[in-house]
Write a structure and sequence with these properties.
The complex is a heterodimer of chains A (478) and B (506).
Chain A: H1 2-6, H2 8-26, H3 33-52, E1 59-61, E2 66-68, H4 70-97, H5 102-119, H6 124-142, H7 149-180, H8 185-191, H9 199-217, H10 225-232, H11 235-241, H12 244-260, H13 265-288, H14 293-314, H15 317-344, H16 360-363, H17 365-379, H18 385-399, H19 403-428, H20 442-460, H21 463-473
Antiparallel strand pairs in A: 1-2
Chain B: H1 7-25, H2 31-55, E1 64-72, E2 77-83, H3 87-104, H4 113-132, H5 136-145, H6 147-157, H7 162-191, H8 196-201, H9 206-223, H10 232-239, H11 242-267, H12 269-295, H13 300-320, H14 322-329, H15 332-367, H16 378-381, H17 383-397, H18 403-418, H19 420-445, H20 452-455, H21 462-480, H22 483-500
Antiparallel strand pairs in B: 1-2
Classes of the chains: A mainly alpha (478), B mainly alpha (506).
């Protein structure tokens, strides 16, 4: 009874998601909005529960399968908020494009459930369970555009590569289990240092864990799926994939590496360093060559996730806090950028080319301003949130003594600034090719404005969110 | 007036919030109302900054008008501002020049007027913020945030090649600044505080100082700009609208110089001493080589841009020659004189280069060409304008009696105390500066009127005459009587010199 009390939000989400599924089955065909509102209300309820049952400490439940702690609760709350926002973005898009897609809201709910389970994972099995629920929902989401061949191709690619990555992850988990005899993360952490002869096998296992993580986070050289999926999926799906699942991937890294094998930090630090440097370089450089904005943002994601890893590489509680701050801010910015694409698209134009952004500031000064905030924030220019994300990670990596990594990070940020500036140029300096009025519902305008202003606000007063990240990662101070 | 009233904050936030207001409220009202509002806000800010001047105690070297509030509590980052005798003149220059910039864009800018005016006001607030920040992170935020309005100003209202110029400007400056950020974060690790004065006091090893110096050098040398990282400046100047050129030349370049004396010299004095030969050499290259480059220009704006680089070479020379002077004379007071010379040069250059860009703007608005060869005989049709420009050209050449002379003279005097050859090379600027500016003046102003465009020119209108008149008064005033300026900064510079005279290696 005590155990079930700890996972009330997760259970509620499961029940409600199934309920929404039934609603969608039995609703009148003329009222697709019913599913949407049911999904929104479900998310709000779960969010309220997360706030109400906020854990005052760290608890383990179900024989160590589940771990409930403050970091998890905060991440789960942000995942819920981001999923909720993506539903609002999606609604406007589907209305404009005439695509009926009430499945979207359902799949988002199930993906969110997967993320929430993943974040609460206390053992290798739960990690895998959450990850698979999340991934399968995402594969289906990518394939949602049934009549589009690029969509089908993207889904296929995503599925095959994702399956391989899952296999790798399982393989790594089996090695760890074979050597330590436990699936539970905290026991694993205690068992690993005692292993004498099998140490090589453990390191080998970690290599496979890192591969699985790298695929989910989307860092070089396990990034191949990202550009195709981002481009092929319909924009709201990309928007969703680019936001909340990044938080889940961060949680997965924390659970597996930091909680599972903290004793081997020196080993995974080295691996992550290679991944981070490769991601920042390749992501930023290749993004310059893109003409499709979704592809460009995909490469930008790769670069950002590489940067985010720097905080974890620092391997201090403060470093984890920095990464957490980064990933939350990144999810908000990425959502805003894709929101911009949704703002621009209309019945005949998907607005996924860079050129579609031409003259946005003239067509709508207000959304020019909002997109300015989002793009400069992505580039890491103060006073916007993206700057503080970079600043925080840099600070911790310098504190941990890796000044050269900070140098590499800022160097590639400069290269990265170029393609963001090019986008700014299109929006502000060029004349619009399409002078038509922006078609967007009040909902979308409101959500996008709130999204942009939130980035601005966190940029002016980043202290509160930083403090939250610091507090919830304190237990990792070792 | 009580110290508790936040005059300095008002000086930063009045233009920023006013600028935002002009942008968002200005889209619904006629352009004339937008212009008036912007002018009112800029004048109000200037008046507030005069209050700073009036209440400033020049006999104290400590920071004044200090405000400190917790900003980002987990990391002890404070909203911590204050001014000393080094920052105050630059703040006054900023608020003063902004008023003129708003006036200069009065009839010229017709496209998106509210955004233009708003961008300059926000820029003003951010620049005052840079000069008054006492917390390193606050400084960095202002420093970088400034790029955004400037990027837009060049990119939206600039010339035909504006996109290239503005992206180059942005990336160059960004390149320098991010390494400064890494240095600041490293310093935080050492000093355990983001307070700039704590950073001044922290002990650092020789090698750490060298790396820090290099990181700061990248940031500030790009901004000054020093040879060989100056190439963004001519492009940015040529493409920027007149107001943008003025703010670049008159204020933004000064931030590089300010950074050198606020960060590089006091935080890494041993490295500054170790690298002073390089810094002097780079400054002399700027003075001499860029002087020759200026001589060869066909485009007036480019010519003044190169002249700016050359003059800023004098500033960095004044800042970094101190160690050589001390080695020669054993007297730090002489070093202080050279630094003061550099400071005066910065202020004077702010007036003179700003005025020259405004003069070119006056011509450009009428003829829409910046090529020297398109003009000739302008004095015949614009006599008042020719008289004003004569004064500014002379000041640019460093004629005694103008503000341009004072700074150059002080730096040269210091240079002579350090080494004859440094002084000899630096002094060539007197000849070169006279050569390129006067030759340009001759080609533009004198001779017979050859083109019909020149023949149709009308002389200054009231607005232009007022702008140039005010600047002319400032140039003459500080040329004849630089004491108020020198008094303001003297004690602060002395304290700075005391600081940089001490080794930080232990």
């Amino acid at each position: 009874m005590v155990d079930i009390g700890l996972i009330i939000p997760e259970t509620t989400l499961l029940v409600l998601a199934c309920g929404v599924l039934m609603v969608d089955v039995f609703r009148s065909p003329n009222a697709p909005g019913v599913t949407f509102w049911a999904a929104v209300i479900s998310s709000l309820l779960v969010l309220a529960q997360l706030a109400f049952y906020f854990p005052d400490g760290s608890y383990v439940a179900f024989s160590g399968q589940v771990k409930i702690d403050a970091m998890g609760a905060v991440l789960k709350a942000f995942v819920m908020v981001l999923s909720l926002l993506s539903m609002f973005y999606a609604r406007d898009y589907f209305d404009k494009r005439g695509e009926a897609a009430s499945e979207f809201y359902l799949l988002v709910l199930f993906a969110t459930l997967g993320m929430v389970v993943l974040i609460s994972a206390g053992s290798l099995l739960t990690v895998y369970l959450g990850l698979e629920l999340l991934s399968l929902s995402l594969y289906a989401l990518v394939a949602l555009r049934r009549d589009s061949s690029t969509s089908a191709e993207a889904a296929m690619k995503y599925f095959i590569l994702g399956a391989i990555a899952s296999g790798m992850l399982l393989y790594g988990m089996s090695m760890l289990y074979g050597v330590s005899g436990t699936l539970q993360l905290d026991q694993l952490a205690n068992a690993v240092p005692l292993i004498g002869k099998g140490r090589l096998l453990v390191v080998f296992g970690i290599v496979f864990l890192v591969v699985g993580i790298a695929f989910k986070v989307g860092v070089v050289p396990f990034h191949m799926w990202l550009p195709d999926v981002y481009q092929g999926a319909s924009t709201p799906v990309t928007l969703f994939i680019g936001s909340a699942p990044k938080l889940a991937a961060f949680a997965m890294t924390m659970r597996l590496l930091v909680e599972g094998v903290p004793g081997l930090a020196a080993d995974w630090q080295g691996m992550l360093m290679i991944l981070a440097v490769l991601s920042m370089s390749l992501g930023n450089i290749v993004a310059i060559a893109q003409t499709n904005i979704k592809r460009m943002l995909a490469y930008s994601t790769i670069a950002h996730m590489g940067f985010m890893l720097l905080g974890i590489i620092a391997a201090t509680a403060a470093g984890y806090a920095a990464s957490m701050f980064y990933v939350i801010v990144y999810a908000l910015m990425s959502m805003g950028a894709f929101g911009g694409i949704i703002l621009l698209c209309n019945a005949n134009n998907d607005a996924d080319q860079l050129d579609d952004f031409r003259g946005l500031a003239k067509r709508s000064p207000w959304f020019g301003f909002i997109l300015l905030v989002i793009i400069f924030s992505l580039a890491g220019i103060p006073p916007f949130a993206g700057f503080w994300a970079k600043w925080y990670v840099l600070k911790e990596i310098v504190d941990a003594g890796h000044v050269w990594l900070a140098g590499v990070g800022v160097f590639f940020s400069i290269i990265g600034a170029y393609y963001y500036l090019r986008l700014m140029k299109l929006m502000f300096f060029d004349d619009p090719t399409d002078n038509s009025e922006l078609v967007a519902t009040q909902d979308l305008k409101l959500v996008l404005s709130v999204n942009g202003l939130a980035i601005f606000l966190v940029g002016i007063l980043p202290g509160a969110l930083m403090a939250i990240c610091v507090v919830v990662t304190l237990p990792y101070s070792g | 007036m009580s110290q508790s009233f936040p005059i300095l904050s008002l000086c930063i936030w009045l233009p920023i919030l006013g600028g935002l207001w002009v942008i968002f409220a200005g889209s619904r009202v006629p352009n004339s109302a937008v212009r008036k509002d912007a002018l009112l806000i800029s004048i109000a800010t200037f008046v507030v900054s005069l209050l700073l001047f009036a209440n400033f105690d020049a006999s104290s070297s400590s920071m004044q008008f200090v405000e400190q509030r917790a900003w980002i509590q987990p990391f002890d980052i404070f909203y911590h501002i204050g001014v000393d005798g080094i920052a105050l003149p630059l703040i006054l220059l900023t608020t003063f020049i902004t008023v003129l910039i708003i006036l200069a864009g009065w009839e010229v800018i017709t496209d998106r007027v509210n955004q233009y005016m708003g961008a300059f006001l926000i820029l003003e607030g951010l620049m005052v913020g840079v000069f008054s920040a006492m917390d390193a992170i606050l400084f960095y935020v202002y420093w970088e945030a400034m790029l955004i309005p400037m990027f837009l100003i060049i990119g939206i209202w600039g010339g035909p090649n504006r996109v290239y110029a503005t992206i180059k400007f942005f990336l160059y400056t960004f390149l320098g600044s991010v390494f400064m950020l890494v240095a600041l974060l490293y310093l935080y690790g050492q000093a355990n505080s983001f307070n700039i004065s704590d950073m001044h006091d922290v002990a650092l090893s020789a090698s750490a100082q060298k790396w820090i110096f290099i990181a700061f050098f990248l940031a500030f040398a790009v901004k000054v700009p020093m040879w060989p990282v100056h190439t963004w400046l001519p492009d940015a100047h040529v493409e920027a609208p007149t107001g943008g050129s003025v703010v670049l030349a008159a204020i933004m370049l000064k931030m590089g110089g300010y950074g050198f004396i606020r960060f590089s010299l006091p935080i890494a004095p041993d490295a500054s001493m170790a690298f002073d030969g390089v810094m002097i050499a780079l400054s002399l290259v700027a003075v001499v080589y860029i002087g020759f480059v200026a001589l060869a220009q066909q485009d007036m704006k480019k010519l003044i841009a190169y002249s700016s680089i050359s003059h800023m070479g004098f500033v960095t020379l004044g800042f970094f020659i101190g160690y050589k002077i001390f080695a020669n004379t054993g007297n730090w007071a002489d070093a202080a004189q050279a630094i003061e010379g550099g400071m005066v040069q910065m202020i004077s250059h702010g007036f003179v280069s700003g005025a020259l860009f405004l003069c070119i703007g006056v011509l450009y608005d009428r003829v829409h060409s910046r090529e020297i060869s398109d003009y000739g005989g302008v004095v015949n049709v614009m006599p008042t304008f020719a008289a004003f420009m004569m004064l500014f050209v002379m000041a640019n050449a460093g004629l005694p009696g103008t503000s341009g002379f004072v700074g150059e003279f002080l730096v040269l005097m210091g240079a002579f105390k350090a080494s004859f050859w440094i002084a000899f090379l630096a002094a060539t600027t007197m000849i070169l500066g006279a050569a390129y500016t006067l030759w340009m003046y001759k080609r533009v102003m004198f001779g017979v009127v050859t083109s019909s465009a020149v023949e149709a020119l009308s002389d200054l209108n009231m607005r232009e005459a007022w702008i140039l008149g005010i600047l002319a008064a400032a140039v003459l005033f500080f040329g004849v009587y630089p004491d108020p300026l020198l008094n303001m900064m003297h004690v602060s510079v002395e304290q700075l010199v005391e600081h940089i005279a001490q080794s930080k290696i232990n």
